Amino acid sequence: MSIAIAIIGVAAAVAAAIAALGSWNAARKANQTAGSVDAIERDRRHDELTPVFNVTCTVRAGDADSADMRVTLIGGRLERHAAVTVTIVDDDGTDCWEHGLPDGVTQDEAAAFVCGPWEFNTAASTQVVSNRESRSRAYDRVTGHNWDLLPLTRTRPGRWMTTTDQAAWNKKWTGKPLRLLLTCKCEGYEPWIIPENVEIAQDRGPLIRTIGLSQ
Question: What does pTM read for this prediction?
């Protein structure tokens, strides 16, 4: 009799363990599902709050080697972004280093070299930190401080490009857009990183492109 009772006790313990394991698995799956739903909702909410910018690039009259980029926060559900940075990236589909770095060219020099038509004018140190990147600053539609003016200059062939002069370099980029990444930060949210191509006409008026999702 005692053996039977012991067996029944063991069986009951096993059954309880199996039941507990089943409950744990069910709870884990429920938590995973809830986590996935929450992640989808966060992503949807983040997309809905994407800021909308207007970018105009104007070649300066009488100076075909200089242009001005005006970046304006015009839309989005958030009125203010604590930090907006504009970064110039290399031309899409062009690899200036497809054959490796030439002799005497350092990694730092290669990273700074813009493989594209325009770069920031580093003489404007209050607006830019390098030929690729603007200074990070707040944009606020409520106060009207929702825009910035960033000076551009034409890129030049690398010093190692001994067979390419400025005229040939300019011709290479004729009709090519300026590629940008806008990084926008707002407290409490993941950053927004918005890529866009901006067309710039030579010696003509401003061409306007809207960056961001339509609201």
Answer: 0.76
